Amino acid sequence: MAVTKTPRKKPASAAAPADEAKPAAKTKATPAKKAAAKKTEAAEPETVKPMKPAKAPAKAKAAKAVEPAPVAAPALPEPAPAAPVAAPAAKVAAGTPALSPLAQTILEAICEGRAVEFIFADADANAPRTFEPRHLTFDALSQAWYVWGWDRRYNAERHHRVDLLAEVNAVEGAGRAAQGPYPEGTPANQIGGWLGGEPIAVKATLLKQWVFAVKQAPPAFPNFKIEEQGDGQALVSFTATDLRAIARWTMQFGDGIQVLEPARLVDRIKQVGAVWAGRERAVAPPPLPRAAHRPEPTPEPRRGESRPHADAKPEPRPESRSESRAESRPHREHRPDRDRDRDEAPKGKAGKVEVIRFDRL
C-alpha cells in the first residue's frame, strides 16, 4: 500500500495570514508614503526655504530657554558682596544723631503748621511760652538740636536749644498772644512777624557776593522771591509784618544790600547806623601824647679817637663856653692912665722856687 502524506492545513493557514499581512502592510504603507512624497514634492518649492529659518528660531528659543540656567546660578551669590556695602551704611547710621521725642514733636508741628508750647527745665529762668517753630537744625559744633522761629513772649525771632526743654505741648488753634488780624487759614506757626498784622512789602537789591548764599538758605519771609539782574546782582522782594525783624534781616548783609522800599525801613536803618556811629565816637580812645624830645645821636668817632663814655656829659660848644666866661667876668671901667702904666712897667723874671725836703722824724 502506498501511503501519501498530505501537508497540514493549519500551519499553512497560519502562515498565510502572516504572508498576507505583510503584503497588506506594504500596500498600505506605499500609498501613504507616495502621498506624503507627492505632498512634499508639491510643497517643496514653497516650504523648504521657510523651513530652514523656522528651525533657526527654534534653536534660538531653545538656547534662550537654556541660557537662564547658567545665569541663575551666579545670581545666588550676589547678596554676599552686598554685605560689606551695607556695613559702612550701618556705621554712618550709628553715628547719626537720634531724633529725640521733643525734636520729633517740633518737627511734626512744623510740617502741620502748628504752634507749640515750650516748658523749660529751668522754669525759674525761662517762663513757659508759645512758640512758632520754623526751622529745626542739628548743630555740628555743639552736637545738639536747635529750633528757630517766632517767640511770642518777646515778639521776636529766637533760637532755642531742644535739650534744655522739659516739655513740648501742641497748641490748638492760633494759641495765645497771636498777632492779628491775619487771613483765615494762615498756619499758626507763621502768624508772628511773618503773616500777622499789617503787611509790609519790601524790595531790595542784593549784591553779587550774597546772591548765592541767599539762594541756598531757606526763605526768611513769606512770598520770598529773588530775581537775578545784571552785574551779578539780584532783586529781593518779600512780605512781612514786623519792621524790627525786617531790619535785622536786612542789616546782616552790611553794605552788600541796598533797600529800595519802604521808606520807613530806610529811615530805620539810617537811625541805627547813626546810633552805631555815635557809640564809636564815645568809645574812641584819647589821642596819643606827643613823643618826647629825643637826644640827637652822637656822631661816630674818627679813626684814632676814642668813643665817649655813656655817662660822660657832652661838652658845651666853644661858642657857648666863651660866652659864659665873658658873662661871668665883672665889668671893668676903661682907664687909660692905669693901662699905660701897666704896659710901661718893666717885666721881672720869674722867681725861683725852692723845694725843701723833710726827713722823717
Short description:
With 361 residues, the protein is an alpha+beta fold. The protein has 10 helices and 9 strands.
Low-confidence stretches: 11-29, 42-48, 52-66, 71-76, 79-92
The total count of helices amounts to: 10
Largest sheet, spatial ordering of strands: 4-3-2-1-5
What does the average pLDDT come to? 73
Bulk shape: elongated
Percent strand: 15-25%
Structural class: alpha+beta
Main sheet properties:
5 strands, antiparallel
Secondary structure: number of strands: 9
CATH level 3 topology of the domain at 192-278: Alpha-Beta Plaits
Report on the structure:
- The chain has 361 residues and is an alpha+beta fold.
- The chain has 10 helices and 9 strands.
- The strands form 2 sheets. A 5-stranded antiparallel β-sheet has the order 4-3-2-1-5. A 4-stranded antiparallel β-sheet has the order 7-8-6-9.
- A hairpin with an 8-residue loop joins β1 and β2.
Helix/strand layout:
Blueprint (H helix, E strand, L loop, with lengths): L8 H58 L1 H8 L3 H17 L5 H12 L3 E5 L8 E11 L4 E8 L4 E6 L3 E6 L20 H5 L4 E7 L1 H9 L8 E4 L5 E7 L2 H9 L5 E5 L1 H21 L34 H11 L7 H9 L17
Antiparallel strand pairs: 1-2, 1-5, 2-3, 3-4, 6-8, 6-9, 7-8
Can you give keywords for this protein?
5-stranded antiparallel beta sheet; 4-stranded antiparallel beta sheet; alpha+beta; SH3 type barrels; Alpha-Beta Plaits; 361 residues; elongated; 10 helices
